[in-house]
Design brief:
By secondary structure, the protein is an alpha+beta fold. The chain is built from three helices and twelve strands; from the N terminus they run βββββαβαββββαββ. The strands form three sheets. Strands 1, 2, 3, 4, 5, 6, 9 and 10 form an eight-stranded antiparallel beta sheet that branches. Bound molecules: flavin mononucleotide.
Length: 215
C-alpha cells in the first residue's frame, strides 16, 4: 500500500472558533467537508480527541469555521495549530470579530456557524456531523488556501513564525496586504508590493499602484 496516494486528495484549511470556560478558543483543521447539499447543508469534521477544541465543541454544541485565504499570514496557522487554547488566548493574537458570541478571523474568505447534530467516536478522533446554521462571505473576495499548498509552500514559514513568536514573546509582524480600492484585488505576488515598478498596474482592472491601500 502506498499511502502517499492520499496526498492527492484535496482539502482546505480552516480555523474553528469555540467558546471556552474562560473566553474563546479554537484550532486549525483540514479534515472538514460538506456531506449534504440541501438548504441547510451538513458538514463533517474530524476532531482530535485530545484537542481542547474537541471538548469545547462537545460542551457547547457549536463552532464557527473561517475559511483561510491563500494570503493568510503563516503565523495564523501556527497560532491556531501549534498550541492549545487550554493555556493560550489564541484569538488575542489575531484580528477577529465576535459574531453572536463566537469568533471569526478577519481576512478569511468565508464563514459558517455550525450546530452539532450527531457525533461518532473513533479511536483518536470524534467525527461531528454539524448543520450549517449561518453562512456568509467576506466583504473582499479572496482565494481559499488548500492543505496541499500549505504543505508545499507555507509550512516552513509557519514554523519560523512560531519560533519567532516564542522567542520574542510577541506577535511577529508580517508584511501588510495591499488591496485595490477600485476592484478589490488583493496583491499576492512574489515581491513586496512596495518594490513593484512605478508603472505596475492592477492585473484585474488596470489602475495604478496609487489606487492600492494597505489592510
Ligand atoms: C495544518 C494543520 C492541520 C490540522 N488539521 C487538524 C484536523 O483536521 N483536526 C484536528 O482535530 N486537528 C488538526 N490540527 C491540529 C490542531 O490544530 C492542533 O492540535 C491544535 O493545537 C489544537 O488546539 P486546541 O487544543 O486549542 O484545540 C491541524 C494542525 C495543523 C497545523
Amino acid at each position: 500500500m502506498d499511502l502517499t496516494a492520499l496526498f492527492n486528495f484535496s482539502y482546505g484549511l480552516y480555523v474553528l472558533g469555540v467558546k471556552t470556560e474562560k473566553g474563546l478558543g479554537g484550532c486549525v483543521v483540514d479534515a472538514l467537508a460538506q456531506v449534504t447539499g440541501d438548504e441547510a447543508p451538513l458538514l463533517m469534521l474530524a476532531s482530535m480527541k485530545n484537542n481542547h477544541t474537541n471538548a469545547r465543541i462537545k460542551a457547547e454544541g457549536e463552532f464557527t469555521v473561517s475559511v483561510l485565504a491563500q494570503t493568510v499570514d503563516p503565523f495564523v496557522v501556527a497560532n491556531f495549530g501549534f498550541q492549545s487554547s487550554r493555556d493560550t488566548d489564541k484569538w488575542a493574537n489575531v484580528p477577529h470579530t465576535v459574531k453572536d458570541g463566537l469568533p471569526v478571523l478577519d481576512g478569511a474568505c468565508a464563514y459558517t456557524r455550525c450546530k452539532v447534530e450527531e457525533t461518532r467516536e473513533l479511536s483518536t478522533h470524534t467525527v461531528f456531523f454539524s448543520r450549517v446554521a449561518d453562512a456568509w462571505n467576506a466583504p473582499v473576495k479572496a482565494t481559499p488556501l488548500t492543505f496541499g499548498e500549505y504543505q508545499k509552500s507555507m509550512k516552513t514559514a509557519a514554523y519560523e513564525a512560531f519560533k519567532r513568536f516564542k522567542a520574542q514573546g510577541a506577535i511577529p509582524q508580517s508584511a501588510p496586504n495591499w488591496r485595490c480600492t477600485v476592484c478589490g484585488h488583493v496583491y499576492d505576488g512574489p515581491v513586496p508590493f512596495e518594490s513593484l515598478p512605478a508603472d505596475w498596474k492592477c492585473p484585474l482592472c488596470g489602475v495604478g499602484k496609487d489606487k492600492f491601500e494597505k489592510f
